[in-house]
Prior knowledge:
heterodimer, B: 2 domains, 26% strand
Amino acid sequence: MGVFRVLLVSWVGWFYSERLFPRLSGARERAIEFHDPPSLAQWLRLPLPLPEHAIEPVRQLAMLLVALALVGLLARVALIALAFLNLGLGLAVNAWGYTAHASALPALVLFIVAFAPGATALSLDALLIKLVAQRKGRPPPGWAPELLPHSPKSVWPVRTLLVLLCLLYFSAGVSKLRYAGGDWADGQTLAFYLGGGSKRGEGTQRFIQQRGDRPDQAFRDGFGIVDYAYVGRPTAIGSWLSQQPVLLRLIASAALLGELLFPLALLGRWPRRLALLFGLLFHAGIALTLSINFTAYIICYTMFVDWCGLVRRLRTRPTAKPQSPLALGSAGSTPRV
Amino acid sequence: MNAEAAPGEPCRWHKLAAALLIVLICGLELRAVLGPYEDWPFTSAPMFARYHAPGDPLFELAVWLEPETGPLVELEPDAHLGLGELGFRRQFFAKYYGSTDPRHPSGHHPHDDEASFRARLSRWMQLVSRAYTRRTGMKLKSVQLEVRRLSKAGVERRPVAYFEATSGAVRLLPWRGAAP
């Protein structure tokens, strides 16, 4: 969990400097009449939008918390504060009509990590406590974080992430069936997006039409507009793929099947490995073809790696019994919930 | 359960707190999935789910502003309101215009009808008028909504609604082609 903390918080730091705070700074120019925060911001009665004069102090606080959480100094406090601050910042940025999906999962996972046992391993806190204990000639206290833990402390964080992923992917699959039926698997929708039918940053937002005849719902304009087109930036690979109908059909079917069957990951070893492999390939494929950055999701997948087990394997002799690299399936580590 | 746990075993309060956190996160995500809702950070993941083939028509929702003095100008969200193109149009579509899907994840409009549609458009066009005037100092005479159908056959334009800034009233235009 300590390794995962470092990876996730590193991404958060990058995200703040490259995406979030530039967008937040731009908010001062926006017409306040169109400020529409997500439900969570309204339930919590957050003081949004952030006043202009508060953005820079908040940015400095955020980067300080990122630094502390990254190196693991006052790690638990920094993680909890960062999780709450990140949630508030995300609610602030997503209050103008656009939902940034790429930052949604990491915001939830940050909460999991903030309260997860073992998240403060591999930290300056652990090192300092160990050094102080050595000076006093005593072992570190029982509550102290381990510098290099021998086994995971608990599985609930990993299982919670798995449940979240199951909900997200299954919902994505159900959405496709609900809105398009099995026809989505014919690959034509993919062909549209990969062929540049709705490019990010080019022209105005476009919309698509309801399939099938619904005269009762076409009263607005006679056309029956059902949704906005999503956007992407097709790469050369994506453009080439848009001209390959057989491949498109295969990829679309695989994507739909993978999403609908992802909850099987809750069952056990090889379904879980297949599901996680699907997820990794899925997001890598989206990045390679549509330039949509889901790096944070791929980082979240590293929570499933049994880092303790890997370190043990590196330390033990080659004759030792091999163990699964996946945290949930490790035979040698039996963490308590 | 005894609050005091064995060494290495989390205490009862830790277990309760972990359970509460898990229920909260997963429960709110489940709410979004079932809604369905697009409600950051919770989402039903509807991205790219609607069927649309290459060659199918696309649509644009164009807004025209008529200042008290000066020519008709097409609203550019960034230039006129400081808003991003995607966020502005998507918010308008989902919350005010309304999808033919009454349970669109970004805006539910069950049992929608012309009266509700007109009322929502009126509210939104008042916001546009107010924001534009505040930012530019120019008062508006009207705000007009036009739907454009883009296809291989060309562009078909349908005026849909006309908002009179002075009275605040919205007139829905017969979409069979009448002009204001």
